[in-house]
Write a structure and sequence with these properties.
Blueprint (H helix, E strand, L loop, with lengths): L3 E4 L2 E4 L4 E7 L9 E6 L5 E7 L6 E3 L7 E6 L4 E6 L8 E8 L10 E4 L3 E6 L1
Parallel strand pairs: 2-11
Antiparallel strand pairs: 1-3, 3-8, 4-5, 4-9, 5-6, 7-8, 9-10, 9-11
Length: about 120
């Protein structure tokens, strides 16, 4: 099983930017789709963005399209989430997850999760 460690969270003002990183252990990182989810206080975990094994395909939740960009560096076993034009509604714990397939599709099961990194957006 792969271990995922997120970093890059913090406190930022509305309109600002943050870049999250997720480093994966193990050699099988390159063959799997990766995704970001988030959980706001009092809410369930929700999909944010995903990227295919080779970075050729990306998917985004409607709420973040045009503001967030997911990317990956397979040589460094790392997936990123660049978050721009942040809103107070983006406040949440952000989780990195590994998909059970090379390409993401809605409902794809995630077989490994990180512990999350907190993003707080102030008004």
């Amino acid at each position: 099983q792969v271990q995922l460690v997120e970093s890059g969270g913090g406190l930022v003002q509305a309109g600002g930017s943050l870049r999250l990183s997720c480093v994966a252990s193990g050699r099988t990182f390159i063959t799997y789709a990766m995704a970001w989810f988030r959980q706001a206080p009092g809410e369930g975990r929700k999909f944010v963005a995903a990227i295919s094994w080779n970075g050729g395909t990306t998917d985004y939740a409607d709420s973040v399209k045009g503001r967030f960009t997911v990317s990956r560096d397979n040589a460094k076993n790392t997936v990123f989430l660049q978050m721009n034009s942040l809103k107070t509604d983006d406040t949440a714990v952000y989780y990195c997850a590994r998909g059970s397939s090379s390409y993401y599709s809605p409902g794809l099961s995630m077989d490994s999760w990180g512990k999350g990194t907190l993003v707080t957006v102030s008004s």
